[in-house]
Design a protein that fits this description.
By secondary structure, this protein is an alpha+beta fold. It folds into two domains: about 5-95, Glutaredoxin (3-Layer(aba) Sandwich), CATH 3.40.30.10; about 110-220, Glutathione S-transferase Yfyf (Class Pi), Chain A, domain 2 (Up-down Bundle). It contains nine helices and four strands. The protein has helices at about 5-10, 30-40, 60-65, 85-95, 110-130, 140-165, 180-195, 210-220, 220-230; strands at about 20-25, 45-50, 75, 80-85. It has a four-stranded mixed sheet, covered by helices on one side. Helix 5 runs parallel beside helix 7, helix 6 (about 140-165) crosses helix 8 and helix 7 (about 180-195) crosses helix 8 (about 210-220).
Length: about 250
C-alpha cells in the first residue's frame, strides 16, 4: 500500500532492486492507479503524495514544475520527475525486471506495440469520453455525438484486446502480470464507472478473457494494497464501485 508519516518509515526497507524512494503524485482512481499497481508489484518503496483536484492543484505552479501539462500522475525518481503513464511504466519495467519482456527478448516488440496502443489509443479515447468539454465546444449535443462515436471505437478496441488476451502471450493475461495487464485492468475499471451518467454501456460478459484478467490481477496482494489505499472496495476490477478513499482524498 502507499505510505505516509510513520508508515512510510516502516515501509522504507532495503529492497535488493532499489534503495531510493520514489514519490507518486496521485489522485484516487486516476491514472496514477496504474503506477501504484506497478510500484506495489515491484515492491519499490514509495511515498504517495495526494494531488487535490478539487482545488485544481495539478494546474498550480508547484505541480506544473513537475509536469507542465498539468495531468496526473507524476513519479519523482532518483533520475528526476517522469510524467505520462506509459512512459513511467516503461521506465519502471526497464529498471526492474519482471513486468515487461527485456529489450533483447523476441516478445519485446509485440509487448511495446500493445503497451503504446493502450496509452496512445485506448486511454486517450477514454479521456475524450470522460471529458468531452476539454476537446470540443460546450454544446451538449456535440458532447453526446462525440461520446457515441467514442463508445463505438472503444468497443472495437476492447474486442481486439479480448482476442489478444486469449492468444496465450507471456505479456498479456499470463500467470505473471505485466505492465500491460495493470494498465488494461485499470482502463476496464474506468469503463465500467465513467462517465457516471452512461456507466455500464459496455457488456463485460462479451469478453471472458478480459474478465479473467481482471480477476487474476484483483487477487494479487498489490491490487489489494492499492484498493485499500484508494478506497476501491473488495472487488475493484471484477465488480468496480466508486472510490471512498482511505487516504486524503484528492478526487
Amino acid at each position: 500500500m502507499s505510505l505516509s508519516g510513520g508508515a512510510l518509515t516502516a515501509r522504507m526497507r532495503q529492497d535488493h532492486r532499489m534503495t531510493e524512494t520514489c514519490r507518486l503524485h496521485y489522485a484516487p482512481d486516476n491514472a496514477s492507479l496504474v503506477i501504484r499497481l506497478a510500484l506495489e508489484e515491484l515492491r519499490i518503496p514509495y511515498e504517495a503524495v495526494p494531488v487535490d483536484r478539487r482545488r485544481a492543484a495539478q494546474k498550480a505552479a508547484p505541480y506544473l514544475a513537475l509536469n507542465p501539462h498539468g495531468r496526473i500522475p507524476v513519479l519523482e525518481t532518483p533520475n528526476g520527475a517522469i510524467f505520462e503513464t506509459g512512459a513511467i511504466l516503461l521506465w519502471l519495467a526497464d529498471r526492474h525486471a519482471g513486468l515487461m519482456p527485456a529489450p533483447a527478448h523476441p516478445d519485446r516488440g509485440n509487448a511495446l506495440k500493445w503497451l503504446f496502443f493502450l496509452s496512445n489509443t485506448l486511454h486517450a479515447e477514454l479521456r475524450m469520453l470522460f471529458y468531452p468539454e476539454t476537446y470540443i465546444d460546450a454544446d451538449p449535443a456535440h458532447h453526446a455525438a462525440l461520446r457515441a462515436g467514442l463508445r463505438r471505437s472503444i468497443g472495437a478496441h476492447l474486442a481486439q484486446l479480448e482476442t489478444v488476451a486469449g492468444a496465450g502471450h507471456s505479456w498479456l493475461n499470463a500467470d505473471t502480470p505485466s505492465v500491460l495487464d495493470l494498465y488494461l485492468v485499470a482502463c476496464l475499471r474506468w469503463i465500467a464507472l465513467y462517465p457516471r451518467d452512461t456507466a455500464g454501456w459496455w457488456d463485460r460478459d462479451s469478453a471472458p478473457h478480459l474478465a479473467a484478467l481482471c480477476a487474476r490481477i484483483e487477487a494479487r496482494p498489490a491490487a489489494r494494497a492499492c484498493a485499500l489505499a484508494e478506497g476501491l472496495g473488495a472487488h475493484p476490477f471484477t465488480a468496480p464501485d466508486y472510490p471512498t478513499p482511505a487516504e486524503e482524498s484528492a478526487s
